[in-house]
Write a structure and sequence with these properties.
Length: 388
């Protein structure tokens, strides 16, 4: 991991470099004459014996480079995986049989389904909570081994008070994991707020171009990271060299992409709540959003994902998705291209998610182009009706 106290060099004033600068520098080969500026993509599953690398499943230079950058961003030690779900499973794997896990009622579908599956098989016990209610979270942590947080949640944009929840969980003897995919480490650093582990779908904002799958777990100390690496070796869900290269390249522009997307998200959220075809906007940046006060305290920005509920029925919300031309109708989030989808089109999505909820991931296009397209597509919805 990069030295947190890094300064430009000994002969310039000792002002610490900004995170944007350090992100551009992270994960590069040593600057010796003739060396490449970027980490090379090494396509080899095995390495000549006797050196620091043995077998690609144990770790490669490509993984170390991207992990250097992510560790820097989160203020810890990162271990990468072949997808976000691989990271989810690696986080759950060490839990003892029958361990109690407390998780948000509206956590990301894949996580929720996996937790339910493990609970049904008797591998774990599961308690789901409204993460917006710290008292409910605290009470549920009694006897728990792990508090799984996600904030803001996908796709309901519910905000947990991470510091307060972590304090309550620790008092009850539970460890705390926070899925930081929506916020990104530029807006929220869960380790600083008391979480023990940060989880990412690197696939999303960190990589930023919808061209790869990757996940990560980030922990506070090298010893903890070594234990996570051992899990990765045995579970086998490693990222490939090209994915590592692309994710690191994408991460270098995260500050630019995120700040642009969230500025546009704020504009769109404001306009959408005045739109006659929209019955509700969920975005923690809106002053009257239930998560606003906590988000304003623990986040540096409100992120580039929002959700709207349209008037009418599921079929009306689907018509909006079919009508967009600048937005892309597709699942996922965090890419340079703006994406929209009706989350309940997936049978596994939580039943508490409204049928007409559209999740909007705001990319880097011109905000007026995004607005015009959405406004035109929303004309497909019968205006002023409540969803049934
Ligand atoms: N966590 C969140 C919040 C997500 O949105 C996703 C994917 O959508 C995941 C985890 C799983 O990540 P992946 O799709 O990279 O496996």
């Amino acid at each position: 991991m990069s030295d947190p106290a890094a300064t430009p060099s000994d002969d310039v004033p000792a002002r610490p470099l900004a995170i944007e600068t350090r992100l551009v520098q992270a994960g590069r080969p040593a600057p010796t004459p003739g060396a490449p500026v970027n980490p090379p993509v090494v396509l080899s599953s095995t390495f000549h014996a006797g050196g620091p690398l043995g077998y690609a499943r144990d770790g490669t230079e490509s993984m170390l480079a991207v992990e250097d950058a992510l560790g820097l961003l989160e203020g810890g030690y990162a271990v990468t995986f072949g997808s976000g779900m691989a990271a989810v499973n690696a986080a759950l794997d060490p839990l003892p049989v029958g361990a109690l896990v407390v998780a948000p009622r509206h956590t990301y579908t894949g996580t929720a389904v996996r937790l339910e599956e493990l609970a049904a098989a008797g591998r774990l016990r599961l308690r789901t909570v409204d993460v917006q209610r710290t008292d409910e979270v605290a009470a549920a942590c009694d006897g728990a081994e792990l508090l799984w947080l996600e904030s803001p949640t996908n796709p309901m944009l519910e905000v947990a008070d991470i510091a307060a929840c972590a304090e309550a969980a620790h008092a009850a003897g539970a460890r705390v994991l926070c899925d930081n995919t929506f916020a990104t480490p530029l807006n929220q650093r869960p380790l600083d707020l008391g979480a023990d582990v940060v989880m990412h779908s690197v696939t999303k904002f960190l990589a930023g171009h919808s061209d790869l799958l990757m996940g990560a777990l980030v922990v506070r100390d090298e010893g903890g990271a070594e234990a996570v690496r051992e899990r990765r070796v045995l579970l086998g869900a490693v990222p490939g060299a090209l994915e590592c290269f692309l994710a690191l390249r994408g991460m270098r522009t995260l500050p630019l992409r995120l700040r642009r997307g969230e500025a546009s998200a704020a504009v769109l959220a404001d306009r959408l709540r005045e739109h006659p075809a929209v019955t509700r906007v969920r975005y923690p940046g809106l002053p009257d959003d239930p998560g606003h006060a906590v988000a304003a305290r623990q986040m540096a920005g409100f992120g580039a994902v929002l959700a709207v509920e349209t008037a009418g029925h599921a079929s009306d919300a689907e018509r909006v998705c079919a009508a967009v031309r600048v937005w892309t109708h597709a699942t996922s989030l965090g890419g340079v291209e703006s994406l929209v989808e009706r989350r309940r089109r997936w049978p596994a999505e939580r039943s508490g998610v409204p049928e007409t909820l559209l999740r909007l991931s705001v990319g880097v296009e011109d905000v007026e182009d995004l607005w015009d397209d959405l406004d035109r597509a929303l004309a497909a919805v019968p205006q002023g009706q409540n969803p049934v």
